[in-house]
Protein backbone atom coordinates (compact mmCIF):
# COMPACT_ATOMS: atom_id res chain seq x y z
CA UNK A 1 0.00 0.00 0.00
CA UNK A 2 1.32 3.44 -0.91
CA UNK A 3 1.68 6.00 1.85
CA UNK A 4 0.99 9.69 1.45
CA UNK A 5 1.66 12.47 3.93
CA UNK A 6 -0.64 15.46 3.97
CA UNK A 7 0.15 18.74 5.69
CA UNK A 8 -2.66 21.14 6.56
CA UNK A 9 -1.54 24.75 6.93
CA UNK A 10 -3.40 27.97 7.59
CA UNK A 11 -4.03 30.81 9.98
CA UNK A 12 -5.33 30.20 13.48
CA UNK A 13 -9.04 29.64 13.96
CA UNK A 14 -9.89 28.79 10.34
CA UNK A 15 -10.92 25.13 10.90
CA UNK A 16 -7.84 23.06 10.05
CA UNK A 17 -8.36 20.69 12.99
CA UNK A 18 -12.13 20.48 12.46
CA UNK A 19 -11.62 19.57 8.80
CA UNK A 20 -8.92 17.01 9.61
CA UNK A 21 -10.88 15.34 12.43
CA UNK A 22 -13.97 15.17 10.21
CA UNK A 23 -11.97 13.46 7.44
CA UNK A 24 -10.23 10.99 9.76
CA UNK A 25 -13.14 10.04 12.05
CA UNK A 26 -16.23 10.95 9.98
CA UNK A 27 -17.40 13.10 12.93
CA UNK A 28 -17.70 16.87 13.17
CA UNK A 29 -16.50 18.32 16.47
CA UNK A 30 -18.25 21.60 17.23
CA UNK A 31 -16.01 22.40 20.21
CA UNK A 32 -12.40 21.45 20.85
CA UNK A 33 -9.30 22.92 22.45
CA UNK A 34 -7.05 24.99 20.20
CA UNK A 35 -4.39 22.79 18.61
CA UNK A 36 -0.68 23.53 18.48
CA UNK A 37 0.41 20.33 16.75
CA UNK A 38 -1.37 17.03 16.13
CA UNK A 39 -0.93 13.89 14.07
CA UNK A 40 -3.75 11.84 12.54
CA UNK A 41 -3.66 8.64 10.54
CA UNK A 42 -6.28 7.01 8.28
CA UNK A 43 -6.12 4.00 5.98
CA UNK A 44 -8.03 4.29 2.72
CA UNK A 45 -8.56 1.44 0.32
What can you tell me about this protein's structure?
There is one protein chain. The chain is mainly α and about 45 residues long. It has one domain. The longest helix is centred in the middle third of the chain and has 10 residues. The N and C termini lie close together (about 10 Å). The mean pLDDT is about 85.
Which characteristics define this entry?
globular, about 45 residues, about 0% strand, mainly alpha, single chain
Distance between the termini: 9 Å
What is the strand tally? 0
Main sheet record: none
**Which regions contain 5 or more consecutive residues with pLDDT less than 50?**
none
Average of the residue pLDDT scores: 83
What is the percentage of strand-forming residues? under 5%
Class by alpha and beta content: mainly alpha
N to C succession of SSEs: H
Question: What number of domains?
Answer: 1
Number of helices: 1
Shape: globular
Helix content: 10-25%
Radius of gyration, taken over Cα atoms and rounded to an integer in Å: 11 Å
Protein name: Small monomeric GTPase
Organism: Acrobeloides nanus
Keywords: GTP-binding, Nucleotide-binding
GO molecular function, one term: GTP binding
Short description:
The protein has 45 residues and is mainly α. The protein is built from one helix and no strands.
Write the layout of secondary structure elements.
Layout: H1 16-25
Amino acid sequence: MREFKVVVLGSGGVGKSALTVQFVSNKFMEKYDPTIEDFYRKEIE
